[in-house]
Write a structure and sequence with these properties.
With 59 residues, the chain is mainly alpha-helical. The protein is built from 2 helices and no strands. The longest helix has 26 residues.
Amino acid sequence: MMKNFWTAIGDFFTTTFEVMPLIGNSINYLYIVIIFLFLVAWTAIMFKHKKNGEEHRSL
């Protein structure tokens, strides 16, 4: 039972590592774009709070 479990996990990772070279750096570029968009959105929200005088307001 446990041997089948560990073999299945090993097979999963083996196929994952075989697919990774096909993806290449595309996934890294996707992550960079997503993080950049979140950073821009967060900065815009912070500027909006500062403009409304809510910068150091208590909850």
